[in-house]
Amino acid sequence: MKTTLLVVGRTVEPHFITAINDYVQRTKRYLTFEMEVIPELKNTKSFSMEVQKEKEGELICKAFQPGDVIVLLDEGGKEMRSIEFADYMKRKMNTVNKRLVFVIGGPYGFSQKVYQAAHEKMSLSKMTFSHQMVRLIFVEQLYRAMNILSGGPYHHE
Length: 157
Hints:
Distance between the termini: 28 Å
Order of helices and strands: EHEHEHEHEH
Number of strands: 5
Strand content: 15-25%
Helix content: 40-55%
Mean pLDDT: 95
């Protein structure tokens, strides 16, 4: 199984880039993992929120491949503790044949088209975080889950 984190727009803050890259590299020790960036839309000031969501949604859907299992990181999704997320990943590693794709949308969330394509929704918290922080939190939690599954010392519980 390949695991992909699909994001809209590049990470710009150097401290986030360094931390995200660190956890991405750590995670690659355990599973095939990549972060795929969909370029930001240009001239969005002339777009309404809905138009921007639709245009981003089209780009997100174009990135999907046949057989992908799509999980949206969405405030309305299921929340899990780290141990539960590790168990979730274990189940997915045994059942997903192609790619497990986690998606972080743009600043206004997902279009209906993206919601319709998704298989599941997952929430990292009830709080709102910047998109750059969500990327970091997710890759850290993915690394933590893999470390839990391998019996590593990273997670204490």
